[in-house]
Specification:
Two copies of one chain form a homodimer. By secondary structure, chain A is α/β, with parallel strands linked by helices. Chain A has helices at 8-26, 34-41, 45-55, 67-78, 93-100, 137-143, 155-167, 194-210, and strands spanning 31-32, 65-66, 84-89, 109-116, 125-126, 129-133, 146-151, 172-175, 188-191. Chain A is built from eight helices and nine strands. In chain A, helix 1 (8-26) runs antiparallel to helix 4 (67-78) and helix 2 crosses helix 3 (45-55). The structure holds a DNA duplex.
Chain lengths: 211, 211
DNA sequence: TAGATTGTTAATCGATTAACAATC
DNA sequence: TAGATTGTTAATCGATTAACAATC
């Protein structure tokens, strides 16, 4: 049987819904409708309803969805109810920026340990986390249930770090280096690439100015 | 007449092609075929050929595309041949990370001036750029052909910075704050959102582990 | 009850992939 | 010439949007 899996565009929109739900919850609002979402996000309400269906929530005609249950269903859906432990390698500006992103806790990501090879960084604290030498990575990974390895090193070192993560049994890699990583098929790699966004922005600028 | 514009997925793939082209050029290789691209990027060669067609390049059967002309056509296509001047607001970790991204010069982006309101930052140099007080933004923008405003401030201040950019006549905003900005229709806004990628990663982890 | 909103099936739209002719 | 690769038209696939029935 072929499982119908959730479309990628839907998955990408889900954090947007989550954000609004948190706001509603904070304000003590109990119900939210697709119209509410639609006005805030400027998305088609039908699309939103479809997206909701993928999370498994059921709503109530004339009222919408209950805010708190919907929030919890979404957190469950993404697996964000139980934070995943992550090791981060590369404490340059980008690594520091990610560490400073306090929001990650809310998004099921717990960066427990950070590494670098730079003698000037090792031992220092960044956002309250002591930078450890990369040598200790493998050992520490054996003793902790590390689910995600975050790569924020220069491109030239990215593959080597990925290899280390794979050897240490880490099942998923979030890669911020502009490198195509080679990993075994059972390892998940998610690549973030700013140049994608810059390309889209550039084209949109060109199209706007041309008019 | 309705212009057929380039699909967004194509635009997002183009920087990948560009990167390989630069490598080939550096190595003095004159020709590149869709097969070459395909092997490197693990993309369908037919898709690559379609993408090439959008850039306007014509290739040569049995040989492929000339590396340098293709690179230039792509740079032209994205408007990256003449770097766009950008002002960046918010010199925290993320802003610094962007400033340190030396690659941007290659990608048609020239961050000429950076701003903050924090007294401890103003006057300091970050990656060789002196941090100016935000008060000077509007005036300086009048005297320089600023095309892109980059927002790397906390969410709470993002809209206010966007307003300043719009008032200063900046036609495009690259927004790294997790905020939905309200701007006039003639202003282009490109939003970067890490939680999207984290959501995709989380779902892929769930799917992999479930198996 | 009437009306608003959900939920689902069908239609449309757009991107990817397949097929194949053109050409160096 | 034969074969590899481009370029284009057609087929497929998947996501979005439309239509409408169900229901509180």
């Amino acid at each position: 049987m072929r499982t119908i899996h959730t479309p990628l565009p839907t998955i990408r929109r889900i954090p947007l819904y989550l954000k609004i739900l948190e706001e509603y919850e904070k304000n003590g609002v109990e119900w939210i409708s697709t119209t509410d979402f639609s006005e805030r996000l400027r998305l088609n309400p039908i699309q939103i309803r479809k997206d909701m269906a993928f999370t498994g929530i059921t709503g109530q005609p004339k009222k919408g969805y209950r805010v708190t249950p919907l929030k919890n269903i979404i957190l469950d859906f993404l697996g964000w109810n139980s934070p995943a432990e992550a090791f981060l390698v590369g404490c340059g500006a980008l690594g520091s920026a990610l560490l400073g992103f306090s929001g990650f806790q809310k998004y099921g990501l717990n960066i427990t340990t950070v590494f670098d090879t730079d003698r000037h960084l090792v031992g220092k604290k960044i956002h309250g986390k002591e930078v450890l030498h990369l040598d200790r990575f493998h050992d520490l990974a054996q003793h902790m249930p590390v689910k995600i390895g975050i790569i924020t090193v220069p491109e030239a070192n990215a593959q080597q770090i990925a290899d280390l993560m794979v050897d240490s049994g880490i099942p998923a890699i979030w890669n911020f280096a502009p490198a195509k990583l080679t990993v075994p098929p059972h390892v998940v790699v998610q690549r973030e690439d700013l140049t994608e966004g810059l390309a889209v922005l550039s084209i949109r600028i060109k199209e706007t100015i041309a008019r």
